[in-house]
Amino acid sequence: YFSDGKGTVDADWIRVGASSTVKIASIDYATNTITLANSISRSAGDPVYLYKDSNGRVVLFGDAPDIGAHPYNSRPDPPRGLRNIDAR
């Protein structure tokens, strides 16, 4: 589900198609209608993805999600300062 930010969190941002990114203004769950904060260009059948979650984290890199994979630029740094302890 997408969040319109009503309550204690910020609204989600979505990407429609390959490049139209916009903040959600409101959601009517009874009619499955999302109202956007501003207008965008789109075509019938364009996919809709979560772009930025209610915590402000960008979760979509590129023009489409990469299901089950970690985007290259969001991978954590490797651990540092590890020591090999010989436990003989």
Can you characterise this structure?
The chain has 88 residues and is mainly beta. 0% of the residues lie in helices and 25% in strands. It has strands spanning 13-16, 20-28, 33-36, 48-52. It has a 4-stranded antiparallel sheet with strand order 3-2-1-4, with no helix packed on it. Strand 1 (13-16) and strand 2 (20-28) form a beta hairpin. The N and C termini lie far apart (53 Å).
Strands side by side in the biggest sheet = 3-2-1-4
Calculate the mean pLDDT score and round it. Answer: 81
User: What is the H-and-E element order?
Assistant: EEEE
Number of strands: 4
Terminal CA distance reads 53 Å
- Tell me the Rg in angstroms: 19 Å
Class from helix and strand fractions: mainly beta
Number of helices: 0
Relative helix content: under 10%
